[in-house]
Write a structure and sequence with these properties.
Helix 2 crosses helix 4 and helix 15 crosses helix 16. Helix content is 38%, strand content 22%. Strands 18-19-17-16-22-23-24 form a seven-stranded mixed beta sheet, with helices on both faces. It is of the alpha+beta class and 499 residues long.
Length: 499
């Protein structure tokens, strides 16, 4: 039998990626393009809708051309995309405003008012979701207050991957993981809930959200004639519904039960795990549907991740290193040689938002004249990782982690990986595939088309672990003490923000 392939597309916060896999999970070819993001005052972070789709078409065509395969041998494709954000389309299906990226914080004050007024608490009983600024629960009320003319033209509200799938198939719909990530989806009824829209003061927008809510491995549509011409795919190629990115990374990491923690360090810092139970309501944990029937994906996340390092490098370190050097590898080498026990500098990575104090900004604590640029760099690394650890503690309490699997850009650094293993006092596995979002979409496609009987077989055939980092006992106690100091810095910043 001739070779068959699965295509996965990942619309991330910083890049759009496409990967062609064979049915054994081997990467045949891939392509990627950095996204064009427009940042404006007031926390606005946006992308042009037409530009997004053009980028998707380009990476699909490039991937097919590189592989030199017959498009007819691509038996199915699946998508993933960043969670949150918002796209608004008119009745004809055309964007009426730029797509809002998940790191957008324009609605921070609106969210604070919704929380203070009790709307977030009232909605939680229906959604089991803690809202944040860069998602529809806060963004739609922001438009209602600041740009009602745009809102009045909105006929369809879509997430990023669902928009791309619509442009490829002509079908407007969503799927359970992304729907439950909007903060407007009832976790009990598995439908968008008009009562939740009423609670948030946006009842008129209920009709904007799709009636079609697919399971991730459902066939949600087929490549249209126009999309085939734009991408090089065969007309009629089936398209699976797919997943939002954290759930896609969980699946592509081979996690199919509650025994292993899913950690992602990319644009956002994300800690997630599968559970058959919803969180205790009094603890207000965030729960979404997962790819497994009867299982939830519990998540703690914030924009406190490696984007903070990107800022530090661009503003300071890039000017200090020779032109043409691999700046991230240079930083890894510097940090890898430092002794964490000799550093008392603390960095709170809140440049793009906080996971502890609403409205707080990033800062350094204990900075003195004897500190060097290397000390500051180490503090940035540690602060980002401590912020991820904070999510793990909220998610797991005092229970031992046991084992975790890490993905995202930081997983390419042995320094980050070892630091995480030491902080968790747990094994940290690295999946073999570097593009887990695309792999997660391809796994859904494989199950949807019947190439695998279920996710278990798909994971067995397509997912492998490359290596594992074990904790260094000498550093476990060091980082335990430093994490306590990190939490004291948070308390101090909280007092400062109240002044």
């Amino acid at each position: 039998m001739h070779q068959q392939y699965l295509l996965g597309i990942d619309n991330g916060g910083s890049a759009t990626k496409c990967v062609l896999f064979d049915l054994q999970g081997r990467v045949i070819s891939n392509a990627a393009v950095r996204v064009s993001v427009h940042r404006r005052g007031g926390g606005i972070v946006e992308r042009d809708g037409e530009d997004i789709f053009r980028q998707n078409c380009c990476v699909i065509r490039e991937t097919i051309d590189k592989a030199q395969v017959n498009p007819a041998d691509i038996i199915c494709m699946g998508l993933c995309g960043y969670g949150g954000g918002l796209g608004m389309l008119d009745a004809a299906g055309d964007p009426i405003a730029p797509f809002i990226v998940s790191t957008d914080s324009r609605a921070q004050a609106v969210l604070a008012a919704l929380q203070a007024g009790g709307a977030a608490d009232a909605a939680y009983a229906h959604t089991f979701y803690e809202p944040w600024p860069g998602q529809p629960t806060a963004l739609l009320p922001w438009f209602r207050q600041n740009d009602p003319a745009i809102l009045s033209r909105c006929a369809h509200a879509v997430m990023i991957k669902d928009y791309i799938r619509y442009r490829l198939t002509g079908v407007i719909g969503t799927e359970f993981t992304d729907a439950s990530n909007t903060g407007l989806f009832n976790i009990h009824t598995k439908r968008f809930d008009p009562e939740v829209f009423r609670i948030f003061g946006i009842k008129e927008q209920f009709s904007c959200f799709p009636d079609k809510v697919f399971a991730p491995a459902d066939i949600a549509g087929y490549i249209t004639t126009q999309a085939a011409a734009q991408t090089g795919l065969r007309e009629g190629t089936p398209v699976a519904a797919g997943l939002y990115d954290a759930a896609a990374c969980c699946l592509a990491s081979g996690i199919l039960d509650a025994s292993t923690l899913c950690l992602i360090m990319g644009t956002w810092s994300i800690s997630g795990r599968l559970s058959i139970n919803l969180p205790v309501r009094s603890e207000k944990g965030t729960a979404m549907f997962s790819f497994l029937e009867g299982w939830y994906f519990l998540e703690e996340a914030s924009p406190t991740s490696a984007s903070n390092l990107d800022w530090f490098i661009e503003q300071f370190y890039r000017k200090m290193l020779p032109l043409g050097s691999d700046i991230y590898e240079s930083c890894n080498q510097i940090v890898g040689k430092l002794d964490p026990a000799k550093s008392d500098l603390v960095f709170l990575p809140y440049l793009y938002g906080s996971n502890t104090i609403s409205g707080a900004n990033g800062c350094f604590f204990n900075l003195a004249s004897h500190h060097t640029s290397e000390d500051v760099l180490l503090a940035v690394y540690e602060g980002i990782m401590f912020s991820l650890l904070h999510h793990v503690v909220r998610l797991c309490g005092n229970a031992p982690v046991g084992r975790a699997r890490l993905s995202g850009g930081a997983s390419r650094s042995g320094v980050w990986c070892q630091m995480l293993a030491d902080m968790l006092d747990a094994s940290v596995d690295l999946p073999e595939c570097a593009e887990l979002g695309a792999l997660g979409g391809a796994l859904c496609a494989g199950v949807a088309i019947g190439a695998y009987r279920d996710y278990s077989q798909a994971v067995t055939d397509m997912c492998r672990i490359r290596c594992a980092y074990m904790p260094n006992p000498e550093r476990v106690d060091i980082y335990h003490a430093k994490y306590e100091r990190f939490n004291k810095a948070i308390q101090t910043l909280e007092a400062f923000t109240k002044i």
